[in-house]
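Dataset card, provenance and construction

Sequences and ligand SMILES were collected as paired inputs. For each pair, a complete structure of the chain with the small molecule in place was predicted and serialized as structure tokens. The example below shows a pair involving LLZGTKA7. Curators did not alter the output after generation; any descriptive sentences attached to a record were derived from the structure itself.
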Amino acid sequence: MTAPDPAPDPAAGPGPVPFGRRLRAAMDAHGPLCVGIDPHRALLQSWGLTPGLDGLRAFTETCVTAFAGRVAAVKPQSAFYEVHGAAGVAVLEEALAALRAAGTLSILDVKRGDIGTTVEAYAHASLAPDAPGAADAVTMSPYLGYGALRPAIDLAQETGRGVFVLALTSNPEGAQVQHARLPDGRSVAGAVADAAGEDNAPARARGELGSIGLVVGATVGDAVQRLGIDLAASGGPLLAPGLGAQGATADDVRRVFGDALGQVLAASSRDVLRAGPDRAALGARAEQVAAEVDRMIAPGALD
Ligand SMILES: O=c1ccn([C@@H]2O[C@H](COP(=O)(O)O)[C@@H](O)[C@H]2O)c(=O)[nH]1
């Protein structure tokens, strides 16, 4: 079951509707929340499911039907499917197809990164319209150099899809690499944000959200300010994991993102998934978290 790819948009010129524009519309409709599908073994058990393939399939199907049409985006975590081998990856591919058919944006959390020629293959695996594992956007690591991600960034722009580049990740260990200073005084994460800003410049010039986002954890405290990173100027969506299970609150989202709040897409997995296995309870919890984040980022929330 596959839905058509993003249709061409005459207002944007030739080509498919850009991911940034589609995400903005989804956030306006449903609030700025992306729910993660993370089928942890412990969660499967707490839902009364077996930890094998049947449990994985049932868990995923419940999540997709609970969240499709209710949240701005859904983010399956690839690791929890890969661990089951090829049959697990097939479940992931079915979930991506079902989300596409439902018209709900998917962000595949797989954090790919390599030398450019290999990134090209990774890009085709997740961002080419005819790929079995095609998502609306994919997470990528720039720690082999932002420039090495060029094939993925170009393919995403061509196909109306998006890339979320790791900048300041939600785990404390990330600081060792991401806070390091370059010879020009910028932090590594700041240079990643600047590079994304250049790729998003045409979208910004149109007054739109760009399609090249950053991952910035809601748990990073005052790092954005301390490192002098201009997140607003990056021009793309800011995927903010860390809500709930990792300790961040909607109030932290407000403090971390400052004048870039309007670009934030908060992400939460376990905190929402623990409301399962009842579909209605899962959907209601997702809507409740989305409403909390929406209140925090509303104009005037910083006053
Ligand atoms: O900096 C990052 C980047 C990605 N993640 C992923 O998000 C979810 C978080 O799950 P929770 O249950 O909401 O803690 C998980 O898939 C991570 O791999 C992240 O946490 N931090």
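Derived descriptions for this record:
The chain is about 45% helix and 15% strand.
The chain has a mean pLDDT of 94.
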